[in-house]
């Protein structure tokens, strides 16, 4: 009667290509129990053990830990269940690696100092929920305790940063700048002041008419102002003053004189307060982060309208 072929660790190593040290480690950990031992106590393994070793190698190459490999071999969990868990872990690892790569690209581009590198890495590693929470907390603080136009602020806080799993260096830089912006005390003070001004205007009954006029005519006014800028017109030109007159007429309440210098100056102040370039930058950065169409600057057109109203 024939006997089953067995192999020493050295022979198993030659047949599988795995180092003797690795096979001995698996055996010591209970993943590859010996089939038999020689009279001298050396471990022996049969063909079934060789197949088991190949499975252990495969699972380890897929990144499973020793505990998961052991669970699969003892069938306390299926390989399929382990695979599902491992895919989820790999997806998260890949996401973090992509972010790390993007951080390094941004660091190389900006030639950042060590402190900035640490900040960039912390910001880049935030989850989508953490990024959205940062924005929600920002707007919560901007309107806390104020009676403001809820629909206006609903639109303001609706835009949330959603950084892709594999962001471009530009998207990552935009997110870092965005996060720094909403945490900047000066910017927070600016937006809070805008909110307080709006609340006071609502309380004084001075908000509804200008706000409605801006919602209705803003795009038209912007287009006319930009056309004048492109044509080299001055704010005091006939075109500039016609635009100023239309803005004032649409914004004035029945009890206000749209032609008075005082009213137009107050209106220009409101335009200037709401047209701060940092507020515009907020939306430009969100567009880059989220892959939206670029948000062109409105500063030249807004500046033209302000100067025309003051003119």
From TrEMBL:
The keyword DNA-binding applies. PROSITE patterns: HTH_MERR_2. The keyword DNA-binding applies. GO terms for molecular function: DNA binding; DNA-binding transcription factor activity. Keywords: DNA-binding. InterPro entries: DNA-bd_dom_put_sf (IPR009061), MerR-type_HTH_dom (IPR000551), MerR_fam (IPR047057). CDD domains: HTH_MerR-like. Residues 6-75 form the HTH merR-type domain. It comes from the Bacteria. This is MerR family transcriptional regulator. It comes from Amycolatopsis mediterranei (strain S699).
